[in-house]
Amino acid sequence: MFSFGKKNKSNQTKILTANLQDQKQKFELIVNAIEDGVVLIDADKVILLFNPGAGNISGWDPDEANGLNATAVLKLVDAKNQLYEDSVNPLLAVFERGQNIRDNAALLLTKSGKQIPISLNVSPLWDANKQVTGAVAVFRDVAEERAEEQRRADFISTASHEMRTPVAAIEGYLALALNTKVTTIDNRARDYLEKAHSSTQHLGQLFQDLLTSAKAEDGRLTSHPVVVEMGAFLEQLSNDLKFAAEKKGLFTEFVLGSSKSIDASGGTGGERVVRPLYYVFVDPDRLREVITNLFDNAVKYTPEGKVSLGLTGDPQVVQMYVRDTGPGIPGEDLSHLFQKFYRVDNSATRTIGGTGLGLFICRKIVELYGGRIWVESELEKGSSFFINFPRLTSEQAAAKQTLDAQSTVLKPIDSLAAAGTP
Ligand code: ADP
Question: Could you give the count of Cα atoms lying within 13 Å of 222 in the half-sphere of its Cβ?
Fold first, then answer.
């Protein structure tokens, strides 16, 4: 039988202790060497570990930070300079939600009061009973990245803005050259000029899309949200949009979800269909851009069949969709479709012109109003693009409308007061 002698046992203990010390040293070496901030918090939100990286970013001495409340040391503010509320502060919310929380929009208030944009990730730690007993926060100073992104967006904005004017002039002159009332040209020249005209139009659209996407990225898109009843809004819009589809020989339809209610007044036990009112709080001009883009895509990529615009919902959500019977989109492309410049590279759609920016802009606009956009598609069957927005109850809609009306009435009075008029 195999057994340890006394001497052997003490040797084992020594090796084990040395191993543990070795492991601790390695752990400390790694945590101290990481440039990112690494902070360990216990269930009472007290800091147990604060690495030098966290110290460099926040301006707190690790010895000083250890033992303090995490939210007192890592103060997070939003873009409007407001301190994070407890319910949305990842350092606290992680204990409620019990899942990883990522925040790329937070600004960290350093010890000296400076604001640093950070990328923050907070992961919960569980005990054997699946209780969250602590959390690890890892954060990085992204000031340099943000400044670089801003420089790139500024360049794109300026370049596309400057280039739009000469392109519009070229397009205008080409249109004049093609106008039979203005010029006389032979058929071959007409053919060349038509091609040049359509390429110039494409270039103009590209510059316009670049400008809009740069604005959407750095939050400069103008937006004036108001209460919109989606049923009436989409019905009107579908009337405006259907001509382009019908010109291509496609059928169109507007499908409005309905809910049934018992007609108490009739007394005949009959049912009457009630048209539900779907209220959302969005900028109607921006929403028109989104739906028009989805509808234009459906028409553009569908050679024959039908394009439907639909509206439905439940008490919390208003859902609209644009559905077509076109070639569909391969599964592997679906998750990339809303990225900048992404275009599907298949034979069904490759030859059709586009910038690959439309859906990216759609996503940015939808997110502006707390919405979500996604696509479901089956090859050779068609595609459906869905948008969900938070739904307002009739009372909420009326309250917002009253507020809106008051602020419009108050504005001139405010400005008179500001001008010193009695
Ligand atoms: P664009 O149409 O200008 O290329 P979008 O961002 O609007 O850019 O669309 C991205 C890509 O998604 C398109 O290039 C096309 O491949 C695919 N796509 C969009 N809508 C549809 C649709 N209804 N049916 C099939 N493919 C589509």
Answer: 1
